[in-house]
Amino acid sequence: MKLSWQIVKFQLKETFAIAYGNYTFREALLITIEKNGKKGFGECTSIDYYNINLADFQTILEKIKAKIESQEIVYPIDFYTLLLSLNLPSFLRSALDCAYWDLFGKLEKKSFLELNSISNNQLPESSITISVDTIENQIQKIEQSSWNKFKVKCNHFDENDIVKLIQLNKDIALDSNGSFNAEQCLWLENNELISRFTYLEQPMKKGFENYSVLHANGFANWMADEDCQDVTDLKGLVPHYTSINIKLVKCGGLTPALGMISFARELGFKIMMGCMTESSIGISAGAVLAPLCDYADLDGANLIANDMATGSKIENGKIILSESYGLGINLN
Fold first, then answer.
1. Burial of 298 (C-beta count, 10 Å sphere; 0-12/13-18/19+)
2. Does the reported pTM lie above 0.85?
3. Residue 211 CB-density burial (10 A; 0-12 exposed, 13-18 middle, 19+ buried)
């Protein structure tokens, strides 16, 4: 196999404002693994609030390049065993795992769905993110959008704004990125009107000391994001969260995500396949797991002005899975 990579800068169509800050671009590390003329692609994004440094990842890749390239073609789960032995950060491990699944499927002339016996008869509809803004501007964007599902970002608690969103009678989720406090969360979960939100994502800052006050049996469909990094977190979340947001870069790729979905189902969670602000490379990887999920938030590539790949796509919320082999990814 041949391993190569590059760092690219994705310009955003408009400023992406969340509780962690405002962003006009994202840098991403694109991974390519090649064998017999076939190429598999993976991606991970530089996220400051996850302390992701892509230059560090390049240094790691230089060190492990020979080990990756000397690996024979094996089933992806066995390749993942190699990745685990290298003690890689989850974001980088995810990019390599996804690239290998893409390559393996192309070599075998099978899609990821075929390789894992996944039916795509039931696909959730994806939400589109509404950045932090005045409530008037957010409502205007929602009303002018051709999408049906919305994830509204906020960076503070405002009861009046929350009521205005509920009164829209739209399919709306609320994502505060950890900007609420315990008292505000108790008000939310004890207010019957709050059940009209599809879910309320990561209400407080990460950590048991915060989410321990949440109750899974209240009116709020609490969804864990930063509090749900990988499968080891799931059991502890059961009394407090009813839903989880799985992102490939958090848990380490498609291989662990498959196991995570299975265990989450056993525990009774509702599941969302989420994303960072990623190109069609990252979105195509996440999209293949959407048939196994209740919700999808896969709008990342729709926010980018200079997407450099094709694959699965999201059109006005509808997930259109690539019919090509592997993850169906190609560079433009």
1. buried
2. yes
3. buried
